Amino acid sequence: VQSTVLDHIGAPTAPSESTATPAPVRRRGGARLRRRPERIGDVRPPRGTGWAIALSLLPALLVFATFFLVPLGVLVVTSLGDWSGAGFQYSGLDNFRTMLGDDTFWKAAKNTLTYCFFGLAIQLPLGVLIGVMLSERLPGWRFFRAIIFVPYVISGAAYALIFALFYNADHGLLNGVVHTLGLGEGRDWLYTSSSALPAVAGTFVFIIGFNAILVMAEVGSIPRELYEAAELDGATVFQRHRLITLPLLRNVIGTLVLITLLGYLALFDVVFILTAGGPDNATVTLTLYAYRAYQAGSWGYANAVGVTIVLVGLLLIVGARRAFRIGERTL
Amino acid sequence: MRRLFLGRPVGRAVLVATAAMAVALFVAACGDGEKSGGGSKGEVVITCIACQPSPSDPFVQYYSEATSRFNQKYAGRYRVKVVHSQFVSPSPERGQYYQRLALANDLPDLLLVSRQEGLALERLGKLMDFKPWLDRDAQWRDGFYPRVFEAVTTAGKTWAFPLGRNVIGVYYNREILAQAGVASYPETWDEFEQACEKVKGIGKSCVAMDGDWTTLLMWVNLIGTQPGGADWIRDELGSGDYASNPAVIRATETLKNWHVKGYTNRDAFAGDFQNAANAYDKGGAAFVPNGPWMVPYNINARGAVAGLYRNTGYAPAPGWTADQRGVVVEAGSAGWASGAQDEDKQEAVAAFVKFLSSRDEVVQASYRTGGFSSVKVSYTAAERKKLEPLGTGLYDEADKVPLQYSTVLLTGPAQFSIAWKNLWPSYVKGDMDTDEFLSRLGEDATSPTG
Description:
heterodimer, A: two-stranded antiparallel ribbon, 4% strand, B: alpha/beta, six-stranded mixed beta sheet, four-stranded mixed beta sheet, disordered N terminus
């Protein structure tokens, strides 16, 4: 099996039209580089239509500038000073120095990374697995697809409130189950340092509906001929998915990795409602850390944290795109 | 002609017109909207957040009803226009919302603020000064209890108008105490702990706590009933120096021990008042500290266990000695503020708060909320019959209680509650000792970066 159809999966195909991955070419001196693919932007508009196109783009540019560029500029500029609304005083990189010297910032960074890890280690694989299983169209798949998607459409705040009751130390369902199973009286899951972070992560790592649906859609676009050929070659179901499905899901898995990382980088509502970052900052995230600074009236400092989050987000985007070659066709 | 859209020829004029319309719409959308709405000729219209009906907040509901009466009384002269908002009752989001409005110079003419929210807005220089209006009417000004304006006055400017002055004691369930063999409400903290042991013995929680409001009420009770404690709460709680004060250390360790010994409800750390309320309302706890508003909305409400109201007593906190008991007196922790800048609107705002502090409205407010006013009022016998006897009893008794002190909301640093909720569970569960807890509490509560 592996030497026939499957050998070609994931290999660059010959360039055709404008969508294919370009073949590598050699630069003088031996360095490899990719030929720049032809893009729509390379086509010059007909003479005399440039101003009309520019004018048509103006509203969108205005919206983009107003709602993205200006706030981003304000964020960056105000991170360089003491700003509390009453006035602004430039202080250079002082906010960043203070931030990097604060233990709570590093705790927040570590917790954020831990949430990301939970997302990548549990939520993503589980979503892919369930998505692939559902795409097998086993009996009742439509029902299960609906069930697993329901948590995704519940707001984070409502979800957190449900789990606050679930984890409640006095009358929560979890302690009830623990007690019923004879495992003791349970514990105060959210307000004990050792269990708070896993308990908070447990509220959202099983929200896999979005991942599963995206994987299902991608699996549906894989040509059936590949599976039929593999089946003729004697591949088992497990082999077919491992050797055909998974490599061809590279794009969507890369996209999900990116979405997961960026989502947890901005994690706020669930943590805020469940624990407000406690106990003793055991669950605090970078966004919650920034929020506290904002609450304290140190808006410049809060924005320095915000700039850091943006920079980390950019790094993650670039890293994930490169690692998973997101956007490049596999077939 | 060019073939641009869907293969159809489109003229330049159409393109230009479309783009121009889009830009015009965008610019129009960015324009300033109407601020206060128009009134009839000569009528001053002021906007109000917190004048809308509220099924869950008795104070806001009362203000909604009072607003209707004000509009009726001053029809043609002043009118309060209700601005509906989800940020009416106190919450962390409300303070942020106010700050956003202030930065956009769009604060309403009337808004309810906690002291901390008001201080933040005052730092932005966006609040009206009530002092000149109070000074214009000495009789009105002198009708308030002494010192109620202190907490909302900075550098001679009174930036909010406090209307409540509440005496906060400890509710107790007589039935539970009787079942546990406790003959009477404890007068000292030693007796309180002995009662707690007995209550624990019958499988109930002794004192209902939430990790925030009720826990902090007990904390100030434990501090305030020590020699010099009341003065410390008033003068030094804001400093952040907690670890060096023996009274604070003693109170903190006592409160911690109540948790360790199992005197409290198990979910006493969430910072959610409902956890404490549930424990008491369902008959699961013998004591809970809170204000008089707890009677209509919890103790005597539909969700409470049958007979709870009948079995509930309300008393000052025990003391370290029987002759040194105390009550929390809360005045100035919240009030009305105003973003009104011009004279006409400020006059209307002053008329509104004056209306609310009139005798009739003060009595109405007590009926509707169970709370008491910062205005000195002697209730008639007929009025007293309509007032909630539990709250009124403590209100009357408060003058005879030797010690009075405020809540942490009034004199504590801005970040106190956040810092407490973050550190308190870890301290109680043994992750840090008292010195580390109090040192970090002081640092975090006064940290300029939160």
